[in-house]
Amino acid sequence: MSRRTDLDLSDDQRFALMKLRRSVADLKLDDKYDDCFLLRWLGARNFDPKLAEEMLRTSMKWREEWSINKDDGWKPPQVLVDYMPSGISGYDKEGSPVVVLPFAGFDVCGLLKSAPPKDMVRFLAQKLDSYLEVARQSSLKHGPKASQVCCIVDLTDFNLGQFTWRPAAEMIINLLQMYEANYPEILKACHAINAPKVFTFAFNILKNILTGNTMSKFIIYKADPNKWKPVLAKYIDSDQYPAFLGGDQRDPDGNPRYITKINQGGKVPKELYLKNDKKLTNSDDMTVVNIKKGDKLYLKYTVTVPQSFLRWQFKTEGHDIKFGILATDSENIQTIIMPIKKVACHEFEEIGVIKCKHTGEYTVIFDNSYSFIRGKKLAYNVRITLPVKEKTISTIDQMVNMEE
After folding, report:
1. In what side-by-side order are the strands of the sheet with 97-102?
2. What is the gyration radius of the CA atoms in the chain, in angstroms?
3. What are residue 249's phi and psi, to 5 degrees?
């Protein structure tokens, strides 16, 4: 743990830093964990050295338990390397690394189906650590202001569709909580550009997870380049960020997205999904049934509030099954909401949601009538949720692909 002589601190802040430095000496931190590192924890706890120490020790324990950057031969799954969008394009005018995140390329559902959640956490922590090391090296040349990260998040084509799957929503929340607990005060500014109206829903959820200090770093702009381009140019020289964001950087072939440095992510191909090879058992989330050969399972749900949502998750053991949805109104008129068709849910869990625009009875059908040889073992979770009202963290179950 090395000391810095270029810090601009008040006497009280210097005393708090000295006290924290002494109290964590037993951790024998590497030299890369210098005074700028300790100041992050103090800043997150209003320069209370006792609280900062507790937060730091908890984080170091977490790093040990999750093997963060542990030299144990672990390599991240290639799908994470190839499809996790982000990259450093350059440096801002104070020397901080500029991280660009094309958010539309973040296929969280596809990544969760292709890699274990623990690997995703470990990989993202590894990414953050690598960005912070770049910032630390820059701060040795440009001073403490360069020890934080400047971020540009491009929200073009952002939608909430993939977050209708509860595991995806929960993973995002877990990652944000991980970030808050273990990477305090690393963000200098986050310029979120091209934000659609629906992003206000997601931002309200962020407010319930991130601290006030972090939220104050967010600067959000609608899809109006005349508003956000001058701001980026004010803080970052044009040769330090990509042309598609208003800078000058391009790939050798002229591509304005600068893919040689910025991983664009994208839709994860289904062939990369992990196979569903686990035996199906009853749980709090899933009900397991056996559907005999040549038989069908009908599940009926009554919708009493218009604009409610019918959601489903299901998977089978070893073989596919057909799936569809019908609706019956008060006059007993039946409508096909989703045609019955074959689903390869023995390979990948099927997840979906529809908006029930009208009241009535909705029938979910699992059809095994085409099979004359074998029955199917099915695990399912089908439920009705009410329309979105209060946009808080408690409404994860109600996140949908909302129209602007």
Report:
1. 87-91, 97-102, 149-154, 187-195, 218-222
2. 25
3. -70, 135
Which pLDDT tens digit goes with each residue over 247-284? 999 999 999 999 999 999 999 998 998 876 566 666 66
The H or E element containing residue 207 is: helix 199-207
Q: Using one digit for the tens of pLDDT, what is the confidence trace for 102-160?
A: 998 999 889 988 998 889 999 999 999 999 999 999 999 999 999 999 999 999 988 77
Average pLDDT over residues 18-44: 94
Q: What is the pLDDT of residue 277?
A: 57
DSSP assignment of 35-89? HHHHHHHHHHTTT-HHHHHHHHHHHHHHHHHTTTT-SSS----HHHHHH--BEEE
The pTM assigned to this predicted structure is 0.74
Region label for 157, one of left (φ > 0), alpha (ψ between -120 and 50) or beta (otherwise): left
What DSSP letter does each residue of 320-333 carry, written as one string? -EEEEEEEE-TT--
Q: Both tokens of residue 63?
A: 């790093």
Helices (H) then strands (E): counts for the chain: 10, 13
CA angle in degrees (0–180, nearest 5) for 194-89-94: 95
- Which residues are 364's β-sheet partners? 299, 325
Strands (E), 171-267: 187-195, 218-222
In 3D space, the residue among 398, 401, 201, 198 whose CA is nearest the CA of residue 310 turns out to be 398
Cα(8)–Cα(297) distance, integer angstroms: 70
What the block records as the tokens of 101 is 């995140």
3-state secondary structure at position 342: strand
Half-sphere exposure of 225 (CA within 13 A, CB side): 6
Pairing of the two strands 187-195 and 218-222:
parallel
